[in-house]
Write a structure and sequence with these properties.
The complex is a heterodimer of chains A (305) and B (315).
Chain A: H1 2-19, E1 28-33, H2 39-55, E2 58-63, H3 70-82, E3 87-90, H4 99-107, E4 112-115, H5 121-127, E5 133-137, H6 139-153, E6 157-164, H7 170-183, E7 188-196, H8 201-214, E8 220-223, H9 226-238, E9 246-251, H10 254-261, E10 267-270, H11 273-288, E11 296-299, E12 302-304
Parallel strand pairs in A: 1-2, 1-3, 3-4, 4-5, 5-11, 6-7, 6-8, 8-9, 9-10
Antiparallel strand pairs in A: 10-12
Helix pairs in contact in A: 2-11, 3-4, 6-7, 8-9
Chain B: H1 3-30, H2 37-62, H3 70-86, H4 91-114, H5 120-139, E1 144-145, H6 149-156, E2 158-159, E3 162-163, H7 164-182, H8 184-194, H9 196-201, H10 206-232, E4 234-235, H11 243-253, H12 265-284, H13 289-314
Helix pairs in contact in B: 1-12, 2-7, 2-8, 2-10, 2-11, 2-12, 3-4, 3-5, 3-10, 4-5, 4-10, 6-10, 7-8, 8-10, 11-12, 11-13, 12-13
The chains are: A alpha/beta (305), B mainly alpha (315).
Chain lengths: 305, 315
Amino acid sequence: MKKLVLPLLILGLQAGCRQGPKETGTPAIALVMKTLNNPFFMEMQQGAEEAAKTRQVQVIVQAAEREVDVEKQMQIIENLIQRRVAAICLTPAGSREVVPAILKANRAGIPVLIVDSGVDSVALAEAGGHVATFIGSDNFDGGRIAGQMIVDKLGGKGNVAILEGVPGHETGDSRLRGFHAAIDRAPGIHVVASQPANFERDQGYSVFQNILQSHPEVQAVFGCNDMMALGAIEAIAAAGRSGDILVVGFDAIADAREAIQAGRMAASIAQNPHEMGRLAVENALRALRGETLPARIPVPIELVR
Amino acid sequence: MHLSPLVSHYGRQFGILLVLILLSLLLWGLSPHFMTLSNWLNIAQQTALNAIIAAGMTFVIISAGIDLSVGSILALAGVVMAGSLKAGAPVPLALLIGLAAGFACGCVNGLLIARGKLPAFIATLGMMSVARGGALIFTDGRPISGFSPGFRAIANGEFLAVPMPVWVMGVVYLAAHLLLNRTRLGRYTYAIGGNEEAALLSGVHVQRYKTLVYAFSGLMSGLAAIVLTARLNSAQPIAGMSYELDAIAATVIGGTSLTGGEGHIIGTLIGAFIMGVLRNGLNLLGVSSFVQQTVIGAVIIIAVLLDMAIKKRRI
């Protein structure tokens, strides 16, 4: 039995290595993401890999097994520092928890580019850390666009519900603030309910089912991501009120685009993760050439309806 | 003279140590960044957290139990300690509060199992949910972050060029080794795991020692909470999810039998290092996390197969 262990291990490792890039002498750019099993991040990975191919550099893509596992993300960053990557592009799994990892990269002289989700700038400044730039969508502006669309569709008057993301999550919070910035200016719009459904489809379903019970007068719902909005659409269908309620989501994932085409969903806000990945690699190369990057590099967003 | 019992006693650990050495040699050949002092300190630091929790888990599993609540207790102890730091408690007091929170949760587990006669699986499954919910209620779902440099030094500081978490791990394993091999608690843990009824009949206060075993596991979760909170400079109510699986894996790879009565603390340490080395090596090689999970899972299965094969031969 013991004789089996090593060959099996070697086999496993070799299988693994075929999937990942071989370690070579060329400098590598690392892209550390929140997760690898979300279409959004898969597109980001594709954008980064295509850019790396054109520029003839190596890109190493890594993510923790669980999206919220900041400690594993920190381990990955520590290991990449040992591996002496040239630059790290990072989508933080926790806006404050990631700061000690950024400090370690700073100390090793490896530039860090933040992608998609922001880092808590106060916590970073207090710790004395710095990042090269932030590359991401303007979530606040996306929320504002979604809010304005609902205001226009309802003619400036009506009852609106909101499905919030994970409490304290920077991305969801900015979308929420942007949405409020738009609807708070319309005195005829009332928010009848605003509850977290943690970015998840099943929770979007059950939370909106409850909202439908307590506030049947609701005319529109904004989901801080598409998963929750899609859950709401199913709850609306289950209540036999399809077509009655305006649903607006965020991210424009494939399922949402389909629902928009079928007329079950009013609109969604499209981010461009492919472009994010491309910009991450391009700007990492700029940083390595010694250029100073702007503090924010916006990635265009658009309304899909 | 009496070499053969010694070899059979430690043979299992030599086997698992051999796996670790061969794995390291293999990774040395694959990556030029692996076999450096700074990378080994890095691995040790990353292994510390799982190893500390697994030390408690080893006692529990030797007693023929299981503790599914370690990750949730870690989260609860972490946020309670962070809350008291934020409320102005001096660092030593906050550390004691964190440890006490872990110990208390472990005591509840132990009492439910030893006196309430609940299966360990059920009791700790319940605690897993209760402690997680408690951590979320305590923090309203938001992380508590930003602590004094003195507190953060627990994870970021170094002593003799070795990171503090590695020292903590070393002290834990020295203490756990002595507890398990030199004290009544250790002897009775083996006895209860081997045959609870026989232990009871021979006068062991089974209830007391069973409770102590789970309390020790909770205490280790509290200690891990301190290290994790200092490391991230933040206590998250969602921290430690699926940590119980890593701790059980390290224990089982290390040769502790899930049926109880058998196992060694040093085996667990080696088991934790095998997992840490695998993760680190696969990161250095740029292997995706999907493959990492597969490889780690395969290692667990192979380790247990090996364990069973050796036991069969002994009989």
